[in-house]
Amino acid sequence: xxxxxxxxxxxxxxxxxxxxxxxxxxxxxxxxxxxxxxxxxxxxxxxxxxxxxxxxxxxxxxxxxxxxxxxxxxxxxxxxxxxxxxxxxxxxxxxxxxxxxxxxxxxxxxxxxxxxxxxxxxxxxxxxxxxxxxxxxxxxxxxxxxxxxxxxxxxxxxxxxxxxxxxxxxxxxxxxxxxxxxxxxxxxxxxxx
Length: 193
What we know:
Elements: E1 17-22, E2 33-38, H1 39-45, E3 51-58, H2 60-63, E4 71-74, E5 83-94, E6 104-106, E7 111-114, E8 125-129, H3 131-134, E9 143-146, E10 148-150, E11 160-164, E12 171-173, E13 180-190
Antiparallel strand pairs: 1-2, 3-13, 4-11, 5-9, 5-13, 6-12, 7-8, 7-11, 8-10
């Protein structure tokens, strides 16, 4: 057999073959066999990457009731209690506030992204979106990058919501209420894998 490093490097394709050893099932009289495995079949054995990016546009009208009516922004996988959502990053873009026609929305607290708003001890983690930033967006070229605030054990990491903790809906004026767009990056984690 030739020395492995003597071969040139190549870019693998799913139908390329790799020489390997097929091990028989335990407690059988079969011997291991040298066989070819396709790159595609080997890749298929690895857990799939479940990184997801999504864009959630929220109108000013919908934001006007955000305190009394939290908005589900990520839905947990259906029928799989062993899968949880890990929210990796949150970036926010806002319409001008106030808008060019004078329409505006003014918040009473930071908006928060969290798995629940009323578990026994409050949310286990959250991303906050600054009230000060939301109330005074003066450029279409600015984005707000939220950071994770974490710290407690979670039993409710299922659906993910946008809301606030003030209990008072924002005040709005005008016909063109500024909205926001969330850019979310998250993954689904199977806790039994």
